[in-house]
User: What shape does this take?
Amino acid sequence: MGGLWLKEWHNLRPFWYLVLFLFGADLLFVPLTDFPDQNLLTLQFDLISRNDWIEYSVIIFFTCYALTSGLLVREQDMDTIRFLDALPTSRTRIFIVKLLLAFVVLFSGPLVEALVSLGFHLLSRDSLNHGFHWPLIGAALFLHALQILVFLSVGLVLSFLRRFNWLLTALLVFTYILVHREFPEVEVINPLTLVRPVLEGYTWVIPWDAVKFQSCLAAVLLLSSWYLFQGAGFKISLALDRWRAHWPGRIALGCAGTLAVFGWIGLVGYLIWLEDPDTDDDAEPVYVDWRTHRVFADPYVFHIPANLESRAREMIDAAPEIHNTVRDFFQAESLTEIPVDATAPAGPHTAGLAFGKLIRLNLGALVSLSPAELKQTLGHETTHVYIESLSNRRMSQSFRYTRFLHEGLAEYLEHRFFGHEGDELDGLNLQACLVYQRKELELEDMFDNNRLTARHDANLVYSLGERFVAALVFRYGDRAPGNILRAMARDDAPKDLEGLTLWRDTFRAAGYNFDEVANNFYDLLDRDSERLKERISSIPRVYGSLEEEAGVLIIRPHLEFPFEGEIICRVRQHTDSAVDEYKELKPDEDGLFLVSKQQYPALQYQLGIRDPQTGHPIYQPWQYTTQER
Amino acid sequence: MMVILRKELREHWLAFLVLTILTGGLFLLILLGYYTNPNGPGVHEAYRAYLGLSSLVSGLVLSHFLVSKEYSGKTQFFLESLPVGRYQVFAAKWFLGLAVLLAIQLGMFALTSAIALSREPIEMKFVGIALARTAAWLLFTHTCFFAYGLLGRYRLFCVFVVFTGLVAIDNASQLRLFEIGPFGLINPNRFAVERDALPLYDLGITAFWSLGALLISLAMMATREGSLASGLAVKMSYREKVFIAGVMVAVIFSISVLESREKPEPYTLVDAMAVTDDKVQVHMAETGLLNNSAPREFLNWLHAELAGVKDFLDMERLPPVFITVRRDLDPDKYELGYLKGKDGLLARVHYDPESWDREAFLAWLLPILLNKATYGRAALERNHWLLDGFAFFWSQGREEDMESTGPLMLRALYGTPEGITRTDLDQWLRFREQRGKSIAGSVAWSGLALLSRQYGADVLQNLLRRKLGQVPPVDARATVQEYRNALPTVFQELSGVGYDDFLSLWDRELRHHQRRMKESLSALPRLQGAVKLVQLSRDSHALEYKLVEALDDDTRIRFNHTRLAYDSNTITPDDVYSEDMNAGRLATWQRLPQGFRRGTLLAWSFTMRSEILKCDIGTGWQRMEVR
Assistant: This one.
């Protein structure tokens, strides 16, 4: 038995070195590149880091798969199993030895990571972060151990498929992603999310449901791989060979294979089809039965269903003037042939979209919007087209950091040149003033869409962006936006700049002072706040409390002071959930918002109120929750 | 050559068929996905997504069946025994692979364009441009994967080296490698969007890369009559796999180490007025104040002060200081800007010549500047009191000593009702959080003032030079140096007195002066506040707060609170929310209009302005976890 351990250890030793190298690299590189006594555990221990845990899981996954791909089947493929069979041992023992050593090799990774982090923490800890956070480390190691066991069990079973192992794994992952979009509750089978750090203070909330399910799954898969290692795989292979030896068998296998492929494609297709294309309850159905007309209104080429042409006529007639207004504002050369596609939907809550030179007007919007609103939409989208053209597409390439100005500019031109007065404009300004007065937003948030979306209503880019551009124009005149876009397109623009740094650099290159504009921006907000102070003071903050009852999560709104208007609430699973995955909840008769826990194993909610005058939603920042898992 | 073609077709027809079915299925899925949620520039965008994925899959499959399999099975020797040249075999395989790839992918392209022409506003010109992009991309991927197949067991390693090299060059230079050439052809911002211009530049670069890959393939095929490719086709052992993986990881780490050692370029401020020399630079953005002489005077003064600090601490240079004026800040609030990859320190301030307190700004700036200059070493907790003390010592208290009755001394005494202990200094971050920066800084100042008076200005200067002025190497040597030259050791070495003896002396001095200024101190209020959590539900709480001891009703009190991240060690002023009200209102419980979920880490404090001490005083920050 000892010889067997040694023989397996000898085989796995290279992997052990690799795992030690991957997870213990900090022990080498931190002393070479950093100060070992300035690495606190809460910063250094990557397994609890909200940003780095996934990388470590992926490393473990690939290492585990590389290891398991040959752990059992290599003995059979190289015929060395016969030598092992000749020893006074059993295949069960061989299986157990291989499994245990593989686990030890892989688990040494997280263990080393923890030890190295503890070592650095010992040197670095200060009076504000003195403890070793043992419960956190214990939970991290426990969950990583279970994750490794799951990876091992899946890898061992699939390794019997030899070269189709990776292909099947890729298909399983792809299918999981699609299923997850429609049925989030399947997250319970995902070994990656098992180790996602969900912390309540310094306590890791263990996902017990997933732990139970995946422990059972690992046990079943390990039993299966044990069974296959006993020789069952060989028997199956022989049976398949027998089938392949005759043409009816070949046909049957071919049909089965083809059915499997098409069945899978069908399943995936069904899952994609399940995704609701348009959740806008207010949108009117439009049937595109009519021929598409092309209408030329220099430089636009409108593609419009013939049955809706008269509705769009006023916008089409005004189109050349709209274009010239935008072009003149940017002092740009005229673009030729701007296609405007009004033959298809453009998504919920969207009147129009622009992609490079293409403008897409929402077919539904064509029906529901007034002629004035259609003109505003065309002006808005034309602005986007010119922004892209002048910036040589750099604005969309850095969309995360440019969305604020992209939408701000479009909104500014829309308001300034194409109408929107009174309540509509005030409603927009009100949103901006509220977040400003409540000090909920920093300038950095506005120039980083990911930061903004993580904490706030992403649509704030419209109201705040419009005010920022107004400040820019106020300070430097109408030429400034165009010059800034041209500066963005310059050949020698540094390419890796982000957020405020990107904009400081761009403003500097255009010859403008960013901070001066920021000052004017705040001045404008102060002025607006003064003008709208009565409305601002009439809108309460709304915050929520979360309860759980019989698998239902209940969000109970609380108001800063009594308010008669409508309270709204929407939910999402994660910070990076796509906007079309957000779900708007309707209150029950008690004013509570209910959501199924099964559908939302992770939940973030955002409460707000609807502006009584304009109907605009005014959201509070997103609230993160942790649930018993 | 036709013989070879027929042989390849006969051998691999099933693989080609399966590949066609699989890629066709993938295409249909992506198409279905697009039409289910059509938020894109058109159906060609769906095709672009398909092309990127399927060309990789197709390339891998074709190179496996046409190249790798032949060499790993050693069947190329049979082909070489036939009456056809090696280059004919190569050409047959190469063209067959390309034909299969083009047939599949261009078939899908034709279908895409047919759909688009019938439903979207596109012209044939656009289709032509997209076709050129597609064909060039396919040629590129085919030649690359063909070469990839010939590299045998090192193919993944070679891909890694090339890819890592490209990433490294991309990071280290201003070249936008992944936006030009072949990657530019299928760029999501261009492929389905560009309607006017043929991307000649990208096509040219792609052709160049394709030619390079083709030459590599030919070289592999020809070297030692093809035995090199044959030898490389042997499978890797476990050891070789691990060794290669280790090399790959080491390369990645090495590149990251090299990148971290890159010297940042200096930051620039547009329209800034500046006072600079080789060692000290201060810049201030123009904000409509150019006609006013006050900013220029302030900059001159600041430059002189910083130059003085540099000389006093015997430093080589100080990081450049950039000041921008932001009117959204209170005059006594300063904000640190983030400069990614640039050298310098950016400060945002509300500069108003009428009310500007330049000494207070310098006291704020100095610790940050020294900390940056020493890569954070000056702010190690065991030395931190020196840093805080020096900021006040230099900016406000060089002329004062412990006998004075100025605000610095009063603050120091207010902050040490129980005297000073070794624990206070060793746990300075906590001490500072409890007392507030101004009070704690003044306490530290009193220590430096005593040190100077008792042991001489030279000892103080040398101590500060050793602990604050040395720029360490950014590696473990700094840690070793720190342990060898711990503050008590250096103190003993320079003054000849034990560190603990000095602390006893300091404590006695403070207590002595407390007796001396008892009346002044007793007139200063000491805030005591309380908070309680009110359960809204099992997981959510509201926070209520009030003052424990009554104050004059009209006294303005702030209740400050902030949420802490589990990995955030310090409380930064820009993350703090405040509720400002009269003390009378705080006699009863007040509720914050927000909810706190279980596990939230919170910090809170009450503060008020003391005109006698000329700073905020309060309860100090209290940390808590919502449970």
